[in-house]
Design brief:
- With 344 residues, the protein is of the alpha/beta class.
- The protein has two domains: 43-164, no CATH class; 169-343, Rossmann fold, CATH 3.40.50.150.
- The protein contains 14 helices and nine strands.
- β3 (208-213), α11 (216-228) and β4 form a beta-alpha-beta unit.
- The radius of gyration is 22 Å and the shape is globular.
- The two termini are 41 Å apart.
Amino acid sequence: MTGVIVWVAYTFAIPQLLTPRVAITSPMSLIHVGTNDSFAITPDGIKAGRYILEMLVSGSREAAQKAIEIYDQIIPRENYGGEYSALRWFAQLFLMSEPEKQKALQDPFVASFYDFFAENNFANLKEYVQRKYLLQQYPDQLTETGRNRAAFLEDFILFNNPAREEWEQTSKVLSVIPLSPGQTIADVGSGPGYYSVRFSEKVGSTGHVYSVDIVQQHLDYINRYIQRQNITNITTINSYPGTTIGLQGKQVDVAFMCSLYHNIYGMSTAPDRDSFVQSIKAALKPGGTLVLVDNGLVEPGQLPYHGPYVAKELIIHQLRFYGFKLKREYAFIPQRYMLIFEAV
């Protein structure tokens, strides 16, 4: 009985010392990282991929239409924000008249995405589909080089997907990030620059964007793009091996991460995570903002999403101990959340 009395007194006298709790409402893990291949390979996905490949190789309009029909069925069922919508976009573009196609490609960033996959008779898009769905054996596919190549193509089509706004509502994400003309932002885990280019427009000529990634191919793509478009307010930084964000000596108003922190939470060693998060704090100006966009868990069948996720409560409580205070949170689409922290 004495033990119970002491416990009750502790609870009400010093509640700030209690460990925050995360409600467990299902048998699912609170975090799932998975493999570099973020999205599942299913029979219908393979079938649609075969039609995409037939479209590219033989120029078959019928194959393009059949691929679209399959994607229209499986996107709501199998794949929330993956490659399906991007591959459907290519099939739709293939069926357009030339004026319609030119209109669809009038955005330079979208046109650059198309050109990357379309060059040399769609060599990169054919390779992506063949590697993704194991439709052709590549000599390097069991090597680190082959795995890195497949991961690069996968990331590229997921990051810069022209249909990304449709499923992510990117414009709403951008609208609530506290970023003004003249400010600086670090796009940490920038990939091939989807958000970096949009941040560039928000901060204007007097602001600056640091595109931070550990994959040099992504940064090379950004560098080629900003050179062609005469964009002068983006600087790329290779932060390999990723134990810091690579901004030594530089400070920013905002640090931004999209679909990255689940890796930091679930795959980093404690010393590496400490180094990474402390480098963010060091790079932020006093009172600076950390924005995290990531995916939370949902029950099987509730949302067709196959990617990695981490319960937002885990991130909120962890970053609290690193000195970040949650200021606002949003969820513009089911499962994907947005957390805005202030460095204190």
